[in-house]
Amino acid sequence: MIPASLNTTIMNWVDLSVDLVSFYSMENNVGTTLTDDSGNGNNGTISGAVDSVGVDGGNALDFDGVNDFCSISSVYNGSAVTTISVWCYIAAAPSVTEIIYSQERTSTPAGSNRSIIINTDGTFRAITRNTSGGNASIISAVQPFPNWFNIILRQDGAALDLDVGVLGSTLTHAGAAVLSGTPASFVGPGRIGCRVNIPGTTNELFFDGKVDLVREYDTYKSDDFVQALFGEV
Ligand SMILES: [Ca+2]
Ligand SMILES: [Ca+2]
User: Fold this and answer.
1) For the segment 27-45, what is each residue's pLDDT rounded down to a tens digit?
2) Which of 24, 104, 119, 162 has the fewest CB atoms within 10 Å around its CB?
3) How many domains are contained in the chain?
4) What's the rounded Cα separation, in Å, for the pair 185 and 55?
5) For residue 217, what is the domain's CATH number?
């Protein structure tokens, strides 16, 4: 049996940069520029969110739940195959549904999206869409607040997975779902901290909490890989 400490070391050898499309460590933002640390130049724009202490001991962005968000226009790979990992700090279950991360479909109806959501009952939800607007989604167990959480959405065409980890605890596979129909592809504008609609014109479901270490990959990563993502912090 491999000791837990050694196992952690092995997981840390996984190269988290392979297939990386974008990475927002929040360490290198300048003014309203959300800096992509992947080297792919997929910078975004910060609207309202402010610097705060991150899960990595560095910086995070703090969203007020009122009108703060980040827009990412050029990041997405247009694919139905992805792994998205987000760390977020949430003080308590929200009084209204909030969107932590969202991407827009290329096909109509516009605004239907692939999203990571925090529900009022304290569960997380991952959702994706087909080209007709139908969806598949997974809802996690009720989470312990306040905490930092690592939420990982994986999609491989029709297959959707959600993993949720609590800082200092374990990463748990929350479930899997199968999408009917033809999986939609996704492009920008994406959002961190609200849903993909034009802010100010609809119910944006703004996120109240902190976000750090956001990564998107253009492949469906293995269970070992997502454990390594969780083990990074
Ligand atoms: Ca604000
Ligand atoms: Ca950080």
Assistant:
1) 999 999 999 999 999 999 9
2) 119
3) 1
4) 31
5) 2.60.120.200
